[in-house]
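Subject: for your reference before the review

Hello V.,

The reviewers asked for a structural picture of the protein, and I figured it would be easier to keep everything in one thread rather than splitting it across files. Below is the amino acid sequence we used in the manuscript, unchanged from the supplementary table.
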Amino acid sequence: MLNRFCSALALIALCSCHSGHQSSASSSPNTLSSAEKRDGWQLLFDGTSKSGWHIFNNRTDGSAWKVEEGVLYLDPKAKGPKGEGGGELISDKSFSNFHLKADWKIDINGNSGIMFLAQEDPQYKYAYLTGPEMQIIDNNGHADAKNIKHRSGDLYDLITAVPENAKPAGEWNSSEIILDNGKLTLIQNGTKVVTTTMWNEQWQELIAKSKFVKLPDFAKVREGRFVLQDHGDKVWFRNIKVKPL
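And here is what came back from the structure prediction:
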């Protein structure tokens, strides 16, 4: 009886170890599961390089954006005195209807963001002139977070995220942006925080009450690129993936 009991315990332990190993493997960062591949997901960050990304309008060599240990991050200290090496990191590909996912964390007192539908053209000095933004910020440390529409998870300067569920600076958060035939949803840490419809009358009213009212090309085009913002602060990204809809 004792031998049977010990054998059973050994089998349980073996199964538990095997199960844990399998779970860890399936959640490896910067990879796609078999189910995700079947569902049409694409990696936008391979975990080892900046392939698929470049600096907006190729203004610098982007050397301040670095990749280490499976993480893409901006190192402000690596920029030159005139911003050499920095700049907004923009995707090579454009998307119209999509589901974007990304993990991020921000430095203490830091500010950044993820833009979408951005247009790249020499006539535009910055991506925000055309691309709406899901805000990334240290809610507890950055002065701009005092603005109720400039906090983490907000559709920047347009709609406040509800509920407010960002984790503190230095901790990983997850963001999702879903755009499907004008229906826009922002998800932060697994919870819907913004839902709206782009390009209708209510959307125009939102813009009219925002800082973007004087930008003639803001959010006008229905296909564009993703942008990781260089706001001068250290920010980290991983698990960037997209599913065209």
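For the response letter, the relevant points are probably these. The chain has one domain: 33-244. Confidence is low (pLDDT under 50) at residues 1-26.

Happy to draft the paragraph if you're swamped.

O.
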